[in-house]
UniProtKB/TrEMBL annotation:
Pathway: Amino-acid biosynthesis; L-isoleucine biosynthesis; L-isoleucine from 2-oxobutanoate: step 4/4; Amino-acid biosynthesis; L-valine biosynthesis; L-valine from pyruvate: step 4/4; Amino-acid biosynthesis; L-leucine biosynthesis; L-leucine from 3-methyl-2-oxobutanoate: step 4/4. The lineage of its organism: Bacteria, Pseudomonadati, Pseudomonadota, Alphaproteobacteria, Sphingomonadales. This is Branched-chain-amino-acid aminotransferase. Keywords: Amino-acid biosynthesis, Aminotransferase, Branched-chain amino acid biosynthesis, Pyridoxal phosphate, Transferase. One of its GO terms (molecular function) is branched-chain-amino-acid transaminase activity. It catalyses: L-isoleucine + 2-oxoglutarate = (S)-3-methyl-2-oxopentanoate + L-glutamate; L-valine + 2-oxoglutarate = 3-methyl-2-oxobutanoate + L-glutamate; L-leucine + 2-oxoglutarate = 4-methyl-2-oxopentanoate + L-glutamate. Belongs to the class-IV pyridoxal-phosphate-dependent aminotransferase family. Its EC number is 2.6.1.42. InterPro entries: Aminotrans_IV, Aminotrans_IV_CS, Aminotransferase-like, B_amino_transII, BCAT-like_C, BCAT-like_N, BCAT_family. Its cofactor is pyridoxal 5'-phosphate. Acts on leucine, isoleucine and valine.
Amino acid sequence: MANAADTTLDAPALTLSRMAHPAPTSAEARAAVLANPGFGTHFTDHMVVIEWTEGRGWHDGVIGPRGPIALDPAASVLHYAQEIFEGLKAYTHPDGSIALFRPEANAARFNASAARLAMPALPEETFVEAVKQLVLADRDWIPAQDGASLYLRPFMIATEAFLGVRAAKSYKFIVIASPAGNYFKSGAPAVSIWVSEYTRAAPGGTGAAKCGGNYAASLVPTAEAFQRGHDQVLFLDAAEHKWVEELGGMNLFFALDDGSLITPPLSGTILPGITRDSLLTMAREEGLNVREERYSIDQWRADAASGRLLECFACGTAAVVTPVGRVAQGDSDFTIGSGGPGQLTARLKDRLVSIQRGSAPDPHGWVVKIG
Ligand code: PLP
Ligand code: COI
């Protein structure tokens, strides 16, 4: 991104200089990607980069061609993993407009993660504007088919060349975009999960922050889950190894036969999911007895065996709402309900997706139209 700026976009919080792309992807190559985007393997033509330095704050925002970034080999992020990220999606609505889903919630969580990782806060308007400008620059990359969208990945890295262990004095905020279909390759109607013996997060740790280090630590347990033929890893609490926390990249819900819907509380060790929060709101509106409370793996197994547990589902931006059909721990496993999708899961998913995709009214003001 070293070319001269040729246009300037006016953002409320920070002005992004625009660099023209010398060779954007051809319409044919883009159409081939959009026909079958998968998850996380294809990227759009542009990216946003904004710099932060101590004493100067956020400056030099650019939207330009996506490409490699230069980093000093001593940059703190490469040694001490001072990195945070977000995930949100852009959708094309039936009227042809483009919308984001609750981007301010991602901006707020980004700053909560930044605070935990000793990184500078980014004004929420700048976060949302950067995402918006990228989506508009790459609007032809939003897949149109049902279930597909443009996944946005804002992130921040520590760039200072310094090997002492303390918060860095310079950072880059970057946004990239990736056309996305189903997160789960199998495309199975319900996923299977593996209960790990590893711990994801302990009280006082970084479990509630969306930092890369949490995911690095989940890779061995995730590989174990895959080797055993499961789709996701589940983590129990660090202290008692008993209470259900969350999956590698999703929150969990349990629907019981007495009309209650349980999800683990935001204890500081799990990610406060925006999908989780949206579903809690919708379930309360439906009159379900919604409970944010601890649920043990033993209770889960017992409730699945007795039939008291009707449905279980995972939720997150990438996974949307995905039924969980089977759970394995050590040498034993159990099935939930019929092992396939249940009615409540399907209804909540449909209500959420309809709002996100603009085919139902948006009573909570969650949808932000950007173009
Ligand atoms: N938990 C973890 C560990 C995640 O990575 C994610 C995905 O972002 C979630 C939960 C769900 O969060 P959200 O609904 O905000 O995408
Ligand atoms: C998301 O849902 O946005 C996530 O970050 C989960 C995973 C892809 C890391």
